[in-house]
Specification:
The chain is an alpha/beta fold and 311 residues long. It has 12 helices and 14 strands.
Length: 311
């Protein structure tokens, strides 16, 4: 009887689903809707995976009934909480077996080919995880603004703040700070308008029972701050002094995680995420052979974990 493995890389924007054979060769791959476990108690994620499963079996030319011979692994955004993963795994699935992980677990498995070591995600968000001697360690990944110290979102927010201070004359300006102000509207008033949206038209009742509008202020989403990173990289490569100053802050955060890995015996730190990979030449110079580019993408890591869990 044939045996199949299905991997899911579930993100807040979309989820990707890959079906593989016993040798982990890809049979088909599809993309479906958003799949963060923290959105509507995971209901959109559940629908996205079920619909995507039908699509991927059809794309592979396999009968949907073969899901009974399929073992699945989901790496889910919003999967940091144990209870969220357990509740999602307990839903009605058509598979022979299901294992639900945080999205960093599949990034780890893909980056290191299923082997031990450490991985950091440095993208719009950031997180770290390692497996050493069979023991799992995890840090970060608590979201914006609670954590995500290494992320493009946090650095983008700090870049915006610094640019505003430079416009006020509190700190030295640079071509980068001027470019940021121009990108966000041309002056500090425009930046303030960009940073907050108040058009909710809601009556807000505060904890003390009074009405007010301050509680309706909504800050920009993390991804909006992360969009400043290409600009940051461009000016960093030109030697912009403010870019270099902020790079020191970014590297100090990454140092914290590198030292944490080394304390529990990790001998490699793979770098996952678009922002981190843009910084890889700098990280390689700083850490030498301790850092590595990923071997495979997170989606393949989900397939690897499916086989490791249900071999």
């Amino acid at each position: 009887m044939p045996r199949y493995y299905l991997g899911v890389d579930g993100g807040g924007t979309n989820c990707r689903i890959r079906l593989a054979d016993e040798n982990l060769s890809t049979l088909a791959e599809v993309k479906n809707g958003r799949s963060n476990l923290q959105i509507d108690d995971g209901e959109p994620a559940y629908k996205a995976i079920l619909d995507g499963t039908r699509d991927v079996f059809a794309a592979a030319g396999l009968d949907y009934a073969e899901t009974a011979n399929t073992y699945a692994c989901f790496g889910m955004a919003g999967g940091r909480m144990d209870t969220a993963r357990a509740e999602f795994a307990a839903r009605a699935w058509p598979f022979a077996g299901v294992k639900v992980y945080d999205d960093i677990d599949i990034a780890h498995a893909g980056a290191l080919g299923g082997d031990e070591g450490g991985v950091i995600i440095v993208g719009t968000g950031s997180a770290a995880m390692s497996i050493v001697g069979g023991r799992r360690y995890q840090a970060g990944g608590w979201g914006f603004p609670t954590g995500d110290q290494m992320s493009g979102a946090i650095l983008g927010r700090e870049l915006m703040r610094y640019a505003v201070e430079a416009e006020d004359g509190l700190v030295d300006s640079s071509p980068l700070t001027k470019a940021v102000i121009e990108k966000l509207g041309g002056d500090n008033q425009a930046v303030m308008a960009w940073a907050f949206a108040t058009a909710l038209n809601l009556k807000i009742i505060s904890e003390d029972g009074s009405e007010g509008c301050d509680d309706a202020l909504i800050g920009r989403a993390p991804a909006e701050f992360g969009k400043l990173m290409p600009l940051f990289i461009d000016y960093l490569e030109q030697g912009d002094p403010v870019a270099l100053k902020l790079l020191d802050i970014e590297l100090s955060y990454i140092d914290t995680y590198a030292n944490w890995f080394k304390k529990h015996g990790a001998t490699v730190m793979a770098i996952v995420g678009g922002f981190g990979q843009r910084l890889f030449p700098i990280l390689s110079e700083r850490y030498g052979d301790f850092v590595a580019m990923p071997q495979f993408e997170p989606l393949h890591g989900a397939v690897i974990l499916a086989k490791q869990n249900f071999s």
